[in-house]
Specification:
Blueprint (H helix, E strand, L loop, with lengths): L1 H20 L2 E12 L4 E10 L2 E6 L7 E6 L4 E4 L1 E6 L29 E11 L3 H7 L7 E7 L19 H10 L4 E7 L7 H13 L3 E4 L9 H8 L5 E2 L21 H9 L2 E2 L10 H9 L13 H4 L6 H9 L5 H8 L1 H6 L16 E14 L5 E15 L2 E5 L11
Parallel strand pairs: 1-4, 1-5, 6-7, 7-8, 8-9, 9-10, 10-11, 11-12
Antiparallel strand pairs: 1-2, 2-3, 5-13, 13-14, 14-15
């Protein structure tokens, strides 16, 4: 009996020593790791400890980790960043995307798509940002940031978004400065009219707050000049969303001859950021395909997520990424447009990479091969033979989505 007790004690001490020697919480092995900031695109191992990236190396011993994830044949990237989403969900009637039924709760639609950071794009204005913060941002496991609407009441649709009197540059900038951790810029959208005033007030708010402006441009008859917007009204680093749209009241970037407008090339060279912002009505293959063939690629890929777009052609960010994959955009460039480029666009450069010491937000993706169909916002189909799928998402060092149990142990062990 004494010998058995001693044996059990020795076994306990030995197991404790082995456990303590496991210096990493999670070890991802054998995946193709793409980290654009650090110039990495190769098969590597990635270790995570206490919510941070602990080590990236060609090979890391499995003995050092408590949990092993085998990512052989899969892509390992920083957690995806969606800079155009709509997440100020609530119960206010006739409020469109501001405390409304049309916006979506972040955690239900982020992790399953590999997204660890969402930026609500204009749902809240300076008048109701605190409500958005308390009800959504502070309650979400997803990192939720905000482009503050230049309209004080936010993106409530209809006449509210036409109220120039409620477009206050000074008050918008004041609130943006009050919440530097959450507010990353200023949004203008949905204004209809031959008037530069809304654009100028949004740009001024961005200047006062030292933050980028994102603009959903159009709705004017006659049309306001897109070239003037790019070359005179916006600053380098400001964002033009819905880049591949063709909507009433806005000049498309691909003209009737199928050529990308010269001023679009000049604007991108100047530093204007062209964002996809797919949405429910703002992405056409007749714009995207010729643009991509000519080499006019997006700086950032985003969803414009809401109840309409997710149930239409958009679906989710990996579906949009798959569209560009089938338009021959290199996978490393697609990862850049959903990670490091997006982090730089919102001036949050602590995100979007896998440097040692960075927050452990990680996405594992699978490239499936087969016969697939992709739909634009006009209901037109593009066939493809490749499709991205989110296998696993890690947020702040914790597995928050695992499609096929890569991080789970067999039930009978």
């Amino acid at each position: 009996m004494i010998c058995l007790t001693r044996l059990m004690t020795l076994l306990f001490l030995f197991s404790s020593l082995v456990f303590n020697a496991q210096e990493y919480d999670i070890l991802i092995k054998n995946g193709r790791l793409i980290d654009v900031k650090n110039g990495i695109d190769k098969v590597s191992d990635l270790a995570i400890k206490e919510g941070k990236i602990a080590e990236v190396a060609k090979s890391i011993s499995e003995k050092k980790a408590k949990k092993i994830i085998d990512a052989k044949g899969l892509l390992v990237s920083p957690g995806l960043i969606d800079i155009h989403s709509h997440n100020f969900h609530g119960t206010e009637h006739n409020a469109y995307l501001s405390n409304s039924f049309t916006a979506l709760p972040p955690d239900g639609f982020s992790f399953r798509s590999g997204v660890t950071t969402l930026v609500d794009c204009g749902g809240a204005g300076w008048r109701n940002f605190r409500q958005f913060k308390e009800n959504v941002i502070d309650q979400s496991k997803t990192r939720v940031l905000s482009f503050l609407n230049i309209v004080g009441s936010g993106m409530k649709g209809g006449a509210i978004e036409q109220n120039i009197a409620d477009m206050d540059s000074k008050l918008t900038a004041i609130v943006a400065k009050q919440f530097p951790n959450e507010i990353v810029g200023v949004k203008l959208a949905h204004y209809s009219g031959f008037d530069w005033t809304p654009t100028e007030r949004a740009a001024e708010a961005g200047r006062l707050a030292d933050k980028p402006v994102v603009i959903d441009f159009g709705g004017s008859q006659p049309e306001l000049s897109l070239e003037t917007l790019f070359m005179e009204k916006l600053r380098p680093g400001d964002i033009f969303t819905h880049a591949y749209a063709h909507v009433n009241g806005r000049t498309p970037i691909v003209n009737e001859n199928g050529k990308v407008e010269e001023f679009a090339w000049a604007a991108q060279k100047r530093g204007i950021i062209f964002d996809v912002g797919h949405g429910g009505g703002s992405f056409l293959f007749e714009q995207a395909v010729p643009a991509m063939k000519q080499g006019f690629i997006p700086n950032t890929i985003s969803t414009d997520l809401h109840t309409g777009s997710m149930n239409g052609g958009m679906k989710d960010i990996v579906n949009i990424m798959s569209k560009f994959l089938n338009m021959d955009m290199p996978v490393a460039d697609i990862i850049a447009a959903t990670t490091w480029n997006s982090a730089k666009a919102i001036k949050r450069e602590e995100l979007g990479h896998l440097s040692k010491g960075a927050v452990a937000d990680v996405t594992i993706l699978n490239i499936r091969e087969g016969d697939f169909g992709f739909i634009d916002t006009k209901g037109k189909r593009m066939d493809g033979n490749k499709k991205l799928e989110c296998e696993l998402t890690i947020r702040d060092g914790k597995v928050v989505y695992d499609l096929n149990g890569l991080a789970a142990v067999p039930w009978d062990e």
